[in-house]
Structures are given as structure tokens and as C-alpha cells.
Amino acid sequence: MLLCVVVLFAIEFYDVATPAPTPAMDLDANGIQPRTVDGLDGILWAPLLHFGWPHLISNSLPLFVLGWLLLAGGLRQFVGVTAVVWVVAGAGTWLIGAPGFHVGASGVIFGWMVFLLLRGFAQRSVAQVLLAVVLFFYWGGMLWGVVPGQPGISWEGHLFGAIGGVVATWLVARSTRRKVSRAEPGTLAR
């Protein structure tokens, strides 16, 4: 996760160090531009881009901590959950987002947070439920970011990131149940 955060800082450093000659050539113009064909590729790039150092710094700690907690479930789960959250957050923002460019890792952060809050219940794991309780008490207030209200904040990215977290939880739980129900003859199911 440290490498991921370092990459985001390197991208922002490049963005700041190489000012674009026109606004259309600005690196942040590669974000999601809702309901435009040109804005579709922003679904891939938006979580990697930030509107300046304060934006990136505010995303760095939750990105590192939540990503690290998600990685504890294994690299395969981390990649799968991240992919689902990334695409759902981006596509939803593209569909209903306010005009302008939407960038930042917060959609992914919201998806990871919701996944970590729900994973323990879906997998019936007491340890994961306890982790969810701690996370909720520490960062649960961030969930208010899914409602409109703060100008300049993409509540659409937050909302669809959270929805992506729900979808990822469902997919992981379904996959886990399928593995458990297919126990070989002569073996005990978990």
C-alpha cells in the first residue's frame, strides 16, 4: 500500500511540475467527465488523479489504512474488490455526476470502507465484525460523504464507490459460499 500511495504522490508531483499549456491538456482533465464520450476513459484514470496536494493528502491516510486492511484478506481479494469498486464508482459517476471533471481516490476509499464494514457479516467472521465496529467508530462519519451538500466534492463518486463496496461484498460472499458448499467427499466443510 505504501507503494500505491507513493505512486499517487509521483503522479501529483508530475502534474504540478509540468503545467499544461491549455486547460484541456491538464492531467486532471483525464478525470471522469459525466455523460460525454471523451469522459469515459476517466473511469480508468480518475482514482489516480487529484486536484492538488491537499486533496491527495486528505485521501492518503484512509487509502493506506483501508487498503492495508483489505490486503490482509489476500492479494486476489484485494484486486477483485478494488476492480469492482473502481468500475462501479467510475461508471456511476459518469452516469449521474455533476458537470465538470471528477478525480480522486475517494470513490475507491468509500468502496473499501463499505466492503470492510460488511465483510465480517457476509462471511460470518467475528474478528471481521469486530474490525468493522472499530472502523465504524473511527471513520464511520465519512459515510455522510455519500449525500450531496459540499460544493466541489463528488458525492456521486462516494455514493457509487459505496455501492461498489456492497457489490464486491456480495460477490466475495457468494464465491466463499460456493467454495464451502463444494466440499469433496470425505472432507469436512468449513
TrEMBL record:
The keyword Protease applies. It is found in: Membrane. InterPro entries: Peptidase_S54_rhomboid_dom (IPR022764), Rhomboid-like_sf (IPR035952). Residues 44-174 form the Peptidase S54 rhomboid domain. SUPFAM superfamilies: Rhomboid-like (SSF144091). One of its GO terms (cellular component) is membrane. The chain crosses the membrane at residues 43-71, 78-97, 103-122, 129-147, 153-173. Its main location: membrane. GO terms for biological process: proteolysis. Pfam families: Rhomboid (PF01694). One of its GO terms (molecular function) is serine-type endopeptidase activity. It is a multi-pass membrane protein. Keywords: Hydrolase, Membrane, Protease, Transmembrane, Transmembrane helix. Belongs to the peptidase S54 family. This is Rhomboid family intramembrane serine protease. It comes from Saccharopolyspora rhizosphaerae.
